[in-house]
Amino acid sequence: MKEWLDEELVAVSAVEHYSYCPRQCALIYVECVYEDNEFTLRGSFAHARADESDETVDGQVLIERALPIWSDEYGLVGRADVVEIHPDGTILPVEYKVTPKNKMRHAEFQLCAQAICLEEMFGRAVLRGATYSSSSHQRREVVFTQELRNKTLEIVELVRSLIINKDVPPPVDDARCHNCSLVHVCFPSEVNRLRGISVEDLIFKASDKEVVE
Ligand code: SF4
């Protein structure tokens, strides 16, 4: 089993951030920047509710909340909002989000990373999970297909490379930015406008401006 350095470990939540926007992931995990907005605050509330007690029994289903998870094989660490352990031994992670049901695809990678951790921890296949939208109160089953697993592990390696190389990708500057809590520290339009302009260009333009004025 590979021994991971601390800086090589990937947080399962980083997988979702990278899937949404690689720069968002870098700002949080490379630059250590975090800002709340309406969506993140509502998300924190949804997670707090999911974490209300450590372990409960709902009918015959044992429910573990805020469960620490890890994978030594893939260098993953994190926490699962809710893990259901059914009487037949089925293990099923559930990820709580404020995101509407139709925008949950990024959360599916995070959920799949959780499943990969749980399989290693419990030594048992985890075939399905679920996302729960606290805004629509809808639960949606996610099947951990080989395609989803491959894509998730691909993102894990991209996140690891980004963190190790301290890489901060350029802004996507599209509709994703409207709901992003980091828009006020990312400056997507401004950064993209300045990309490709050298410091010399800026000085030259500034001195031009002074002359004209
Ligand atoms: S504002 Fe846009 S480019 Fe910047 S981190 Fe957010 S989604 Fe990514």
Task: Outline the structure in words.
- The structure is a single chain.
- The chain has 8 helices and 7 strands; from the N terminus they run βαααββββαββαααα.
- Helix content is 43%, strand content 22%.
- It starts with 9 loop residues before the first strand and ends with a helix.
- The protein has a single domain, classed as Lambda Exonuclease, Chain A, CATH 3.90.320.
- Helix 1 packs antiparallel against helix 4 (105-122) and helix 4 crosses helix 5.
- The mean pLDDT is 86.
- Strands 1, 2, 3, 4, 5, 6 and 7 form a 7-stranded mixed beta sheet that branches.
- The chain has helices spanning 12-20, 22-29, 38-50, 105-122, 146-164, 183-186, 188-194, 199-212; strands at 10-11, 55-58, 61-71, 76-85, 91-97, 128-133, 138-143.
- It is α/β, with parallel strands linked by helices.
- It is globular and about 75 Å long.
In short:
The chain has helices at residues 12-20, 22-29, 38-50, 105-122, 146-164, 183-186, 188-194, 199-212; strands at 10-11, 55-58, 61-71, 76-85, 91-97, 128-133, 138-143.
Fraction in beta strands:
15-25%
Please, how many domains? 1
What's the architecture, going by CATH? Alpha-Beta Complex
Between the first and last Cα atoms, what is the distance in angstroms? 66 Å
CATH topology: Lambda Exonuclease, Chain A
- Small molecules bound: iron/sulfur cluster
Core attributes:
binds iron/sulfur cluster; 7 strands; seven-stranded mixed sheet; Lambda Exonuclease, Chain A; single chain
